[in-house]
Amino acid sequence: MNALVTGGGGFAGRHLVALLLARGHRVIAAGHDCPVEIDFREGTDVQDLLGDARPDVVFHLAGTATPAAMRRDPIAGHLNITRPTVSLLDAMLANHAGTRLVLVGHCLAYGRPTRLPIPEDHALAPLDTFAAARAAMEHVARNYLPHGVDIVIARPFHHAGPGQRDGWIPSWRRDGPPDEPTRALRRDVSDVRDIVEGYLCVAENGKTGEAYNLCSGSTVALGELYDRVVACSSAPLPSAVAAPDPASRPEVPVLWGDPSRAEALGWRRRFSLDQTIHDACAAVPPPPARYA
Does the pLDDT of residue 201 top 80, yes or no? Predict the structure, then answer.
């Protein structure tokens, strides 16, 4: 497989690049902190990149990655998610209709669930700007399906693991424990190494136009997750509870996904939550920035 990974310098992107290389695929990683530096909002640059790379599959991970980053500049964050997607889709429609796009969405696009565990046919009802941008990205992409563009959608739930700079575990270790309302939230948490296995599985076996939840199929209270991080850490963590962000998104009490559709493709998880926590806390380095 000749693969292009957008956002290949990010947390999940580096793990995906490492996995693809280990499986013998040729990889071009593009975006920040990658061999190919590119602004995916610029359509001409994207056209040139696809013309040079001629990928069989594009794994689209580029864009604003967290709600916190979106809150710092909502307009720019929204454009950083939707505009690169349009640039890619336009380029594929024009000259690369045989290329498959694995579009990476986010579980937060479901909003406050009306069914648990959440299936892929659950309505997308985002509650904040970040989730709305992820949902908009999917809606825009679906408009290209009737024109022959090959798109499959991966909807990862929350994930953690070695090399993560943002997220609950690094923030707790840096800033202190979650407040009581946050401790009560329940989330479906997987290992990033399993999530990127899911991206590859969806690329190889997914059905055009379908969405696939990538999740553990279980939940953990964030308070319990924090306590397990404390038990696993070799040094004491800060004890002062950080002040809540007044602009933070509305919280959903439980986010719990149904992974059965991805499992039917052959996707299997290898890492337990304890192993994920251990590797995230043990300063295990992220995969090296090697590309081929």
Answer: yes
292: confidence class by pLDDT, cuts 50, 70, 90? very low
How big, in percent rounded to 5, are the helix, strand and coil portions of the chain? 40, 15, 40
Burial class (CB within 10 angstroms; exposed 0-12, middle 13-18, buried 19+) of 246: exposed
Are the beta carbons of 102 and 60 closer than 8 angstroms? yes
* Position 291 confidence tier, pLDDT thresholds 50, 70, 90: very low
The DSSP line for 115-161 is SSSBPTTSPP---SHHHHHHHHHHHHHHTTGGGT-EEEEEEE-EEE-
- Average pLDDT of the segment spanning 220-235: 93
Helical (H) or strand (E) element with 103: strand 100-104
* Residue 187 host element (H or E): strand 186-187
On the CB side of 83, CA atoms within 13 Å amount to 14
Summarised one tens digit per residue, pLDDT across range 35-55 is: 888 988 888 999 999 999 999
Q: Which domains does the chain have, with CATH numbers?
A: 2-281 (3.40.50.720)
Residues sharing a CB contact under 8 Å with residue 287, sequence separation 6 or more, in sequence order: 14, 15, 17, 18, 163
Q: Which is it for strands 57-60 and 2-6: parallel, antiparallel or unpaired?
A: parallel
Q: What is the pLDDT of residue 283?
A: 62
For residue 74, give every residue at least 6 positions away whose Cβ sits within 8 Å of its Cβ, in sequence order, or none: 129
